[in-house]
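User: Structure with guanosine-5'-monophosphate, tokens only please.
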Amino acid sequence: MNCLEKRILKDGVVKPGNVLKVDNFLNHQIDINLLDEMGKEFYERFKDKKVDKIVTIEASGIAIAFAVARYFNVPIVFAKKAKSVNIDGDVYIAEVESFTHKNKNQVIVSKKFINEGENILIVDDFLANGCALQGLISIIKQAKAKIIGIGIAVEKGFQPGGTIIRNLGYHLESLAIVDGMNSDTNEIILRNQN
Ligand code: 5GP
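Assistant:
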């Protein structure tokens, strides 16, 4: 079991509506040593590929992206969630439905930060239905850059995102895959990935 899996079992809180709270260590309070371990683990899984840039989505993806980017020694670009967009043609845009807030956001990336032909590793905190990832994929495709892989901290394996993204042919690595959870008992079932 890796350090993230152990930490999820210790400190993860299951909320109704299939939401796993990891506020204690990942996306409110952040355990920097855990994130460093995660960055190293993602590096090990993708180090045979050429990575020019890490792309993520604000806010929770940024800290994880930083941990990974340290090991690859490359810049991070994060997609911004834009509610009322004044679009001026200088940005790539995708529509993303938020799993946790149930609303739709446009996410944008300035055209100057993703270049044609760049090798991109996408990183995010959670994978549920795959909307956030599809938005990032769309933006990177618009830029004619290349997606060399996708690193996810927590994949909820009982939701369709992982299957959808793998079926699209992407190399997707999830540090922890949750196969089931119960908000009454706080039971969390992790997939054995060894
Ligand atoms: P998707 O777009 O794959 O449906 O959902 C992914 C996004 O929703 C992630 O970027 C994450 O911010 C949020 N998310 C989805 N499921 C969970 C969850 O169980 N817990 C938390 N904290 N965030 C989640």
